[in-house]
Amino acid sequence: MTVASGAAGQNACGECVAELAGVHHRYGDVVALDGMDLGVRAGEVLAVLGPNGAGKTTAIALLLGSLPVQRGEVRVFGCEPGAAAVRFRRGAMLQASGVPNTLTVSEHLELFSSYYPAPLPVSQLLAVAGLEDVASRRFARLSGGQKQRVMFALALAGDPELVFLDEPTTGLDVEARRSLWREIRAMKAAGRTAVLTTHYLEEADALADRIAVVHRGRVVAEGTPAQIKSRAADRRILCVTRVDLDEVAVLPGVARVERNGRHLEILAARPEDVLRILLARDPDLHDLQVTGVGLEDAFLTLIRGDGRQEEA
């Protein structure tokens, strides 16, 4: 793996292969990025999470060189992101494919591989993406999940060091999703770096070495999945009780409560205080569990806690 040199490799990010530093970007009056700082370290899977409109797509487009930099610095392998030397070293799986419907899967891979000086063999790409059975099928006749796997294979065609994966498992069934997860882990084991955007928080938790939570055009939290989950102070209480849901919802320290079958599921910053009240009101409370929150709860806590005002 080649480590970035120059500006991108010398800052606090350490061994950065790609970086946004103080980047601002607008679409007319709409602020997409508001001084974003984001570094991608060599050999990691970085998951970029955020609600719709958070700035994820703009950030990735800048790193791919498909948008001009308005203000700030964007570097990939220490170079301008659109440089030819960069394009040969990175791959991208994007949601908008734009590939011809008339070519077969093999023809697509052969054509795309011809753009690179040292591509992976087409047979290997077919195997990695699980496309061997549809190699001779035209793109137009593929299912949505099969088309996603073609896009994954195309992203790997040039044997890239850095791969951008934008919602890679959208449209895949559970088995195909887990299969793609195995290939992403294999990419990392082979020394590649991946930037993953996904709406599946389970996917980020399973694959990412590091997560960057983006909201309103900036990174509001960054760390390992465990570190992100620890940023949510709430704990989850699961119990069966006669106390009414609406009564629990107004107790001090309760952030959220909902019914889950027979159980009440309660998020609270100080579960011991909530349980003291519940047990006083219902001595027969049972099936009690108190656990830490998952990534989804932490994500929602971080997003809701970012009180900056959006610009109109």
Which helices and strands occur, and which strands form pairs?
Layout lengths: L15 E12 L2 E12 L3 E5 L6 H8 L7 E6 L7 H4 L2 E4 L11 H9 L8 H7 L15 H13 L5 E5 L7 H16 L3 E5 L3 H7 L2 E6 L2 E6 L1 H6 L4 E6 L4 H5 L4 E7 L2 E6 L2 H11 L4 E7 L2 H11 L7
The gist of it:
Helix content is 31%, strand content 28%.
Please provide a written account of the structure.
By secondary structure, the protein is an alpha/beta fold. It has two domains: 16-229, 3-Layer(aba) Sandwich (Rossmann fold); 235-292, Alpha-Beta Plaits (2-Layer Sandwich). Helix content is 31%, strand content 28%. It contains eleven helices and 13 strands. It has helices at residues 56-63, 84-87, 105-113, 122-128, 144-156, 174-189, 201-207, 225-230, 245-249, 271-281, 295-305, and strands spanning 16-27, 30-41, 45-49, 71-76, 90-93, 162-166, 193-197, 210-215, 218-223, 235-240, 254-260, 263-268, 286-292. A six-stranded mixed beta sheet has the order 5-6-7-3-8-9. Strands 11-12-10-13 form a four-stranded antiparallel beta sheet. A hairpin with a 2-residue loop joins strand 8 and strand 9 (218-223). The longest helix has 16 residues, at 174-189.
β-sheet strand percentage = 25-35%
Low-pLDDT stretches are 1-12, 307-312
* Tally of alpha and pi helices: 11
The shape, in one word, is globular
Largest sheet data: 6 strands, mixed
Cα-based radius of gyration, to the nearest Å: 23 Å
- The chain-level structural class is alpha/beta
Reading the helices and strands in chain order gives: EEEHEHEHHHEHEHEEHEHEEHEH
Q: What is the CATH C level class of the largest domain, in words?
A: Alpha Beta
Question: On the 0-100 scale, what is the average pLDDT?
Answer: 87
Terminal-residue CA separation? 43 Å
* Tally of structural domains: 2
Helix content: 25-40%
CATH-derived architecture of the largest domain: 3-Layer(aba) Sandwich
CATH superfamily heading of the largest domain: P-loop containing nucleotide triphosphate hydrolases
